[in-house]
Structure formats: structure tokens, C-alpha cells
Write a structure and sequence with these properties.
single chain, alpha+beta, OB fold (Dihydrolipoamide Acetyltransferase, E2P), 2 domains, 5-stranded antiparallel beta sheet, 4 helices, elongated
């Protein structure tokens, strides 16, 4: 994570998650080792289906936790970056657009940005918030945003790089990112709570079905003996 420059809060949360998971797993194994091992009962088809359902819900839980946290941190970082900064409305005149695609083990990423003039000075900006559809090539990007296009923006003179320029939206950048962060947080927590409840119920049902099948398995083994 450090090599790929993950945010420090992101690394901290995963470290805590790994520590708690390791601690609980160690305690569970120690308790199981202290108990006499009963003869394992054969799993019923219902128990197998429930096990698959529990695994799928667990995978969804981890996926929502991962992607929800990344989306929340992106909006949170942008909110903190723009909070309290001075800015004013102006315009960005396109000089050149850039379509850059990177390759990687997870399919790569696409970056679309532009250089232009703002109040007589050269600036850079991301075109993703401005475009309604995502282009698939440099030529398509140039046709969508030709040279000379005027884009209404907010200019943050005290910031650096592409963060100095933000497309004017319904809300100021700080408020828009704060609202997005809270929206992601509320939805992620709601989904995680729902998935946690579903996993708990499925585990209880699976345990009950396995416990009810144990007497029948014992009787069958006794009859066979």
C-alpha cells in the first residue's frame, strides 16, 4: 500500500481490520483446539447452499467496505482541500486536450485533461467533470472539446496544479464534495449494516440446520454399526 501511495487513513483502517481479523481467528482456533472434536456430520444440500450464500454476502461486504472507503476518502480529501480557500468565477479557454490511457494489472486507467488560458495565464484542468460522456480516443476528445472552447470555472489561486481549476456546478466545490462524502458514508454504512444482518441470519440458519441433522447422522451411524 505504501508503494502505491494509498492514503494513510486507508492504510490505518486496513491495518486495524487485519489485526481484528487475526485476533478473532486466533481465539476461535484456540477454543476449537480446547474442545473435543466431535464426529463431523455430513452437510445437507441446504447447508451447502447457505454456505455459498454466506460466502457471497461476505465478498459483497468486503467489496462495499473497500470501494465505499475509497470513494469516501476521495470526496473527503477534496472537501478538506477546498474548504476555506478563496476562489472566484472565471473562464477556461481550451488550448489543447490530452487523452492518456495507462495499462495495468487491473485494466489500466484513462485520464482526460486540458491546458488552456485563464485570465492570461496558462492553467491545467481535468475534463472529466465537464464532459457528459467519456471519449475513447484522442480524436474523439478533440471533437468533443475543440480548441477555443470556453468553460466556466472556479479558480483557486492559492492551490497548485489541476486543483486550481474546478468546473462550476450547482454547489461550490467544498460543499459539493462534503455532500458527496456524507452521501457515500450513509449509503455504505446502510448497505454494510444490511449485509451484516443477512450474514448473521444465514449463519444462524445454517448452524441450526447442521445441529438438527447431527442426531439423524448419529442414528444412521449407530444403525450401520
Amino acid at each position: 500500500m505504501l508503494a502505491f501511495h494509498f492514503p494513510r487513513p486507508f492504510i490505518l483502517v486496513f491495518a486495524v481490520f487485519i489485526f481484528v481479523g487475526t485476533f478473532l481467528s486466533t481465539r476461535l482456533r484456540s477454543r476449537q483446539a480446547a474442545r473435543p472434536k466431535p464426529t463431523p456430520a455430513p452437510q445437507t444440500p441446504a447447508a451447502k447452499v447457505l454456505g455459498i450464500a454466506i460466502g457471497m454476502c461476505g465478498f459483497l461486504f468486503l467489496s462495499v467496505l473497500l470501494f465505499g472507503f475509497v470513494m469516501f476518502m476521495n470526496s473527503w480529501s477534496a472537501w478538506q482541500r477546498y474548504q476555506g480557500q478563496s476562489y472566484h468565477a472565471t473562464s477556461f479557454q481550451i488550448v489543447r486536450v490530452y487523452y492518456q490511457r495507462t495499462t495495468g494489472s487491473h485494466g489500466g486507467s484513462t485520464y482526460i485533461y486540458a491546458s488552456g488560458m485563464v485570465e492570461g495565464k496558462k492553467e491545467w484542468m481535468s475534463l472529466s467533470p465537464y464532459l457528459k460522456t467519456r471519449p475513447r480516443s484522442q480524436e474523439e476528445l478533440e471533437s468533443m472539446v475543440p480548441v477555443g472552447t470556453i468553460i466556466p470555472i472556479y479558480l483557486f489561486p492559492n492551490l497548485k496544479g489541476q486543483t486550481r481549476v474546478e468546473v462550476i456546478g450547482a454547489l461550490p466545490p467544498a460543499e459539493a464534495n462534503r455532500k458527496q462524502a456524507m452521501l457515500v458514508l450513509n449509503r455504505a454504512l446502510t448497505i454494510l449494516a444490511g449485509l451484516g444482518l443477512v450474514i448473521f441470519v444465514l449463519v444462524r440458519i445454517r448452524r441450526s440446520s447442521m445441529e438438527s441433522s447431527e442426531p439423524a447422522a448419529v442414528q444412521a451411524s449407530a444403525a450401520g454399526a
